[in-house]
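Hi there,

I know you've been waiting on this one. I reran it after we fixed the sequence typo, so this is the corrected version. Both the input and the resulting structure follow.
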Amino acid sequence: MVLPTTAHRMPCSDYLLVLSLLLLALLHPHPARGAAPVRPEEWWEGRPRPYFAHSPANLTVISGQTAFLPCRVHMLGDRSVMWMRGRDLHILTVGKVTYSADERFQILHSQETDDWTLQIQYTQPRDAGAYKCQVNSDPKIVRNVYLTVTDKRFLDGQLYKMPTTVKEQGEFGTHIVGGGTRFLQAGSSLALECVVTHTRGPPPAVFWYRDNDVLDYDSPRGGISLEVQKAGQQTTSRLLMSSVRESDSGNYTCVPVNAPTAAVTVHVSTDDDLRAAVHQGDLSGARRVLPGGSARVPFLLVTLGWLLALRPT
């Protein structure tokens, strides 16, 4: 028997090359004649597709505020994002372009983020409803965002309880008996009477103020008396102050709870003030308002003296 010599053996490198060619032929056979060429993207198994990131799907604003409807899309690639209004499927934006004549609608997007936020300025109650964020992939993907717009007028009137108004407690009227200005001599007494009329119940309380200071039994001044009388649809509050002085001058206000206020101005003068007024000639002006015509006495005496002088001897 003849044994193979070293000259008849295949080199190891050639052997490996033949095996490689066989493996390539098995793994990648030549396409049959007439077959469609393989597209480059088909070399990808599980090509990345766009998908929505988790973000709030319900948004509530008060009318007049700006609404921001979120839509975050990852792996968008060369696709585009479109916003539509749900109730009429009206296209609002495509990409960065706005297709609505309403200038309140605008898309917010920057290349650094995957956010495509729909902005609605000066929201109105009619803007409420569903909005669709859609990506034109194959198949298309859609995400709904629901907007609630609360009417601010309803919010002010219903959601928050407003302070009790005059109408809710009935109609009121407040006045202080006498004129709007009082002149007093120092040492005398001040008496003010405030009358409150009401169609329903009386006011819970009536307060008196001098300028910004409340007047009651415990006031540092002392000498203050308060009386309240209720009869039918009328409540009367009386303020009494003894031995008034110049520091008691000011604006006195009657303040019934849940009712209009009324005020008078009080001036307190001393004897020195009165003497100064006489020297300034104000006494003659005061004579013209004295009752019984006493201001005409000097004139009558002068006239009588003149007539007596003319009488024949």
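Quick highlight: The mean pLDDT is 76.

Best,
R. S.
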